[in-house]
Amino acid sequence: MLKRSIVLATLIVLFTGCATLNQNKKLPINEAIKTDAPLQKKEEQTYLEAYLDKDKQDTREHKNFGSFFNKYLNTKIGGDCSGFISVVNKKHENMYFDEKSISKHYDKSGRKSKAIFNLYSSKKQISFTEPRVGDLIFFANTLGRAAGKNKDKSNITHIGIVTEVAKDGTVKFIHNYSGKITHSYMNLRQKNTYKIGEKEINSYMLRCKSNKTSCLASNRFAGYGIVR
Questions:
Q1: Residues of the chain with pLDDT > 70: what percent?
Q2: Phi, psi of 158, rounded to the nearest 5 degrees
Q3: 187 DSSP β-pair partners
Q4: Which of 36, 152, 172, 215 sits at 20 to 30 Å (Cα–Cα) from 158?
Q5: Helices (H), the chain
Q6: What is the DSSP secondary structure assignment for residue 226, as one 8-state letter?
Q7: C-alpha–C-alpha distance, residues 205 and 186, integer Å
Q8: Per-residue 3-state assignment (H helix, E strand, C coil) for 23-89
Q9: Distances from the Cα of 143 to the Cαs of 21, 23, 146, 149, 161, in angstroms?
Q10: According to the model, what pLDDT value does residue 113 have?
């Protein structure tokens, strides 16, 4: 019988730091994040190296770069929003942060999404305009007691990755939402509009009574994490 060795690497998250869409199906507070997935293929590493190299043409301007993240769609990778970002980050050579640097930025909430926001804020890399594909996107007050309110913009509870910026201002982003990787939308030019015809321009980040516009992505937006 052949002997096999299995290596498990598991990170435990104190809080999910993510929005929950289905009220009847709550995500567990303590979520194990699997980060033992193999590194990307060599050609993907080369693609990402170009993205990270400031001396080369910015790969994010390439029309196909947004699809770089599509391989994660409809999976449950990461377990929650910050777990998804952590897995992407690890598989692609710390494209967003070094885990050691994140550990210094946790606050009493214990949320990793907020720690990542704090790290970017400390580096003056939080912006509210002109996002680019590949940048992080943060949202506040999307879970717990704060879900029905949106007064504390510093209460970061959700995070995703920008995958497309349309001419009409609609930002498409990928994130782990209710335990599954999906695409959602945000348009700050029309903050209180869910759809224009059949086109969704602002996704609901949580369910509110009577589908209040305050629960749209545009009204829970807390900033972009600009990747340099």
A1: 71
A2: -150, 150
A3: 170
A4: 36
A5: 42-52, 81-91, 99-102, 112-122
A6: -
A7: 10
A8: CCCCCCCCEEEECCCCCCCHHHHHHHHHHHCCCCCCHHHCCCHHHHHHHHCCCCCCCCHHHHHHHHH
A9: 9, 10, 6, 10, 19
A10: 97
Q: Rounded to a whole number, what is the distance in angstroms from the first to the last CA of the chain?
A: 50
HSE-up of residue 82 (Cα within 13 Å, Cβ side)? 29
pLDDT band at 204 (very low <50, low <70, confident <90, very high): very high
Q: Residue 126: its pLDDT value, please?
A: 98
Six token digits for residue 29: 């507070």
For 22, residues 6+ apart whose C-beta sits below 8 A from its C-beta are 178, 207
Look up residue 145 and give its two tokens: 């007691």
Smallest CA-to-CA distance from 115 within 92, 89, 133 is with 89
Which of 143, 139, 111, 114 has its CA nearest to residue 208?
A: 143
pTM: 0.77
Please report where in the chains the tokens 């993240």 appear, as a residue.
Answer: 69
Q: Which of 114, 161, 147, 124 is nearest to 214 (CA)?
A: 147
Tell me how far CA of residue 172 lies from CA of 35, 50, 184, 196, 211, in angstroms.
25, 23, 6, 15, 21
Look at phi and psi of residue 166 and say left if phi exceeds 0, alpha if psi is from -120 to 50, else beta.
beta
Which pLDDT does position 13 carry in this prediction? 36
Round to whole Å and give the CA distance between 202 and 215: 10
Is residue 207 within 8 Å of 116, Cβ to Cβ? Answer: no
Lookup result for tokens 């516009």: 213
